[in-house]
Amino acid sequence: MKAPTSAEQTGAAWLFLTPALTLIGLFFFLPVAASFLLSFTDFDIYAIADPANVRLIGLRNYIRLVESPIFWTALKNTFYFVLVGGPLTMVVSLGAALLVNAPLVRFKALFRTLYFAPFITTLVAVAIVWRYLYHRQYGLINYALGAVGIAPVDWLGDPHWAMPAIILLAVWKNFGYNMLIFIAGLQAVPQELYEAAYLDGAGPWRRFRHVTLPMLGPTLVFVSLITMIGFFQLFAEPYVMTQGGPLRSTTSMVLLMYEEGFRWWRMGFAAAVTFVLFLVILAFMLLQRRLRGEQAA
Fold first, then answer.
1. DSSP state for residue 41 in the 8-state scheme
2. Dihedral class, residue 225 (left if φ above 0, else alpha if ψ from -120 to 50, else beta)
3. Beta partners for 41?
4. In terms of Cα–Cα distance, which of 237, 229, 226, 214 is closest to 295?
5. What are the CA-CA distances from residue 153 to residues 134, 156, 158, 160, 166 (Å)?
6. Which of 85, 114, 252, 283 has the maximal Cβ count within 10 Å?
7. In whole angstroms, how far apart are CA 116 and each of 113, 134, 174, 178?
8. In 3D, which of 234, 115, 233 has the Cα closest to residue 175?
9. How far is CA 185 from CA 85, 156, 289, 297, in A?
């Protein structure tokens, strides 16, 4: 039998890829392109009634966005959530992975299941439960604080405490997924390295610093990327728990986009918010990649 030529192999590959690429183009790239074009229009509720009312307005939506105080507040809140909640989630995830992966720990499968359970729980249901835990008068958290003599805290009603409260919920909700990835990375570290470091007199901290962390480098990069990208998309927690308040202290970029697009029906303006958020995430990823390259060099 004659072996297929490279052109025939390429044609067969494209034949198998075409259905998947078609679906990706129809349900991902086409909506993204349409949203990008939408950001240069004044598409609103009147345009929904009659598409003839749509007008191209150029960069006016982006100019309005830059001039809007609410946009800068949402951007600041989003960065606060990402820069505090993201590293905290990674620290908790790595700590839990180290504990669960320790040789002396029994019932490892049980602990992995318990720690992973919050991640697969419906976020809206979790947010509702935590909203009652944070209740100023009847919440379990304030009850525990009162038992040690600390006055009740208005967690979701105080602008200074609302975002930290949401960050605490997000860390508890998401650390289990990262923990499993870290466990996989820890199990791939050769035990011979730990044994050699132990024979050289390295204690637990030095083994962690000079063996575990360097070997977990690719895992740390992957976990940091997916964590930061996910945290930039903060929406459900403030939507369910605070509706963006108090005093806009928990309004995120995605929540602002939702309000503009689906509460006030300013679809063009909401699309502009979306693409600004996309540029922010892209810039953050490029910065992280550059810093990682400088460290590797």
1. B
2. alpha
3. 56
4. 214
5. 8, 9, 8, 11, 14
6. 252
7. 5, 23, 8, 9
8. 115
9. 22, 37, 20, 22
Prediction pTM value: 0.89
At 264 the three-state DSSP class reads coil
Task: Tell me which amino acid residue 28 is.
Answer: F
Rg of the chain, C-alpha, whole Å: 24
Q: What is the pLDDT along the chain (297 residues), one digit of tens a residue?
A: 666 677 777 888 888 889 999 999 999 889 889 889 999 998 887 777 777 778 889 899 999 999 999 999 999 999 999 999 999 999 999 999 999 988 887 888 888 888 999 999 888 889 889 999 999 888 999 999 898 988 889 999 999 999 999 999 999 999 999 999 999 999 998 889 888 888 888 888 898 898 999 899 889 988 999 999 999 999 999 999 999 989 999 999 999 999 999 888 899 999 999 999 999 999 988 888 887 776 555
Q: What does the alpha-carbon distance between residue 193 and residue 207 come to, in Å, rounded to a whole number? A: 9
**What's the token pair of residue 172?**
């508890």
Residues in the chain, overall count: 297
